[in-house]
Write a structure and sequence with these properties.
It holds the Pfam family Response_reg. One of its GO terms (biological process) is negative regulation of bacterial-type flagellum-dependent cell motility. It comes from Thiomicrospira aerophila AL3. Keywords: Phosphoprotein. This is diguanylate cyclase. The protein is elongated. It has about 300 residues and is α/β, with parallel strands linked by helices. The relative contact order is 0.10. Helix content is about 45%, strand content about 20%. It has helices at about 15-25, 40-45, 65-75, 90-100, 115-135, 150-160, 180-185, 190-205, 230-245, 275-295; strands at about 10, 30-35, 55, 85, 105-110, 170-175, 210-215, 220-225, 260-270, 300. The chain has a five-stranded parallel beta sheet, sandwiched between helices. The longest helix has 25 residues, at about 115-135. The structure holds 3'-deoxy-guanosine-5'-triphosphate (GH3) and magnesium ion (3 copies).
Length: about 300
């Protein structure tokens, strides 16, 4: 819903005049949204977690600003949005409380608009840099899919979530066949290109929201399929294998085909702890080893 180039500012204040003064001062540089209660603020942010900053009043009927701040900071989806309190409460203890709840800044009313603008600008610039860093640290540089770090974090998060349900978790480990020979024969540059193409093909298969495809290591990929049983995971594994075969990347040194192929190991189970999810990953890896032993270019469950 937002124009990517114009940062978005949510103003939360039960007093329309206050909100209007802030909005008028900021509207040339930002997209401004205004809500007039803590409750509406929580609903709005939940629906729009990509907001760049929140200017938050403290004294409001229903949910006050402190409560809004602590709820947003304790939710992973909204914790990274900078919150600046803008409040008539001007005791040092009020400010201390606000900052301790995770707000980046505290501005007392009456404020100097120019200073509010300068602070908003600085906080948004930092926020965008943090977002970029977070994104970079979770992506593989070559293939632009998730990296090992994101895979590990997602596996832990998904297992904590699935532990509370009876839904199964499926994992797939994949590995390119005879890739050492590919590199040796075609060179490292074409090897890199091959990895990029394979990642792209896999990506076109793993489309369901909640699923995750990652580059796990050199020429190894891994997939997390929450709430997917064995039969479902096998269909996905077959789809992944076929997506790479369809690329028809010439591989003269492969012993199983004239083009690049992959092998996969699949594991599925309900899980009751993070340890069990890690165990499930080991099972997928064992299955992958079996697929290699049985002749490659196939999956084993
Ligand atoms: P198998 O069929 O049993 O999987 O054998 P393999 O040759 O594919 O596997 P092996 O583990 O012996 O070799 C993996 C190769 O992958 C060796 C390594 O140089 C290459 N590789 C790993 N990461 C990269 C990368 O980022 N770029 C390129 N070009 N090659 C890579
Ligand atoms: Mg108020
Ligand atoms: Mg390997
Ligand atoms: Mg390999």
């Amino acid at each position: 819903m937002f124009d990517e180039n114009k940062p978005s500012v949510l103003i939360v204040d039960d007093e329309p005049t206050n909100a209007k003064i802030l909005a008028n001062g900021l509207k040339d540089d930002y997209q401004i949204m205004i809500v007039n209660s803590g409750k509406k603020a929580l609903e709005f942010v939940k629906a729009n977690p990509k907001l760049d900053i929140i200017l938050l009043d403290i004294m409001m009927p229903d949910v006050d600003g402190y409560e809004v701040c602590s709820r947003l900071k304790s939710d992973e989806a909204t914790a990274a949005i900078p919150i600046v309190f803008v409040s008539a409460l001007n005791q040092a203890t009020d400010e201390e409380k606000g900052l301790n709840l995770g707000a980046v800044d505290y501005i007392s009313k009456p404020f100097h608009l120019a200073i509010v603008k300068a602070r908003v600008k600085n906080h948004i610039s930092l926020k965008r840099k943090n977002d970029l860093l977070a994104e970079m640290s979770h992506l593989d540089v070559l293939t632009h899919i998730a990296n090992r770090r994101q895979f590990d974090e997602t596996l832990v998060r998904e297992s904590l979530r699935l532990m509370r349900s009876s839904a199964p978790l499926s994992l797939i480990m994949l590995d390119i066949d005879f890739f050492k020979q590919f590199n040796d024969f075609y060179g490292h540059g074409l090897g890199d290109l091959c990895l990029e193409k394979v990642a792209k093909a896999f990506n076109s298969v793993i489309k369901r929201p909640g699923d995750l495809l990652a580059r796990y290591g050199g020429e190894e990929f891994a997939v997390i399929l929450p709430e997917t049983d064995k039969a479902g995971a096998e269909v996905v594994a077959q789809g992944l294998i076929e997506s790479v075969a369809a690329l028809q990347i010439k591989h003269e040194r492969s012993e199983v085909a004239s083009y690049v192929t992959v092998s996969a190991g699949v594991s599925s189970d309900t899980i009751e702890s993070v340890d069990e999810a890690l165990e499930l990953l080991k099972r997928a890896d064992v299955a992958l080893y079996q697929a290699k032993k049985q002749g490659k270019n196939r999956f084993v469950t």
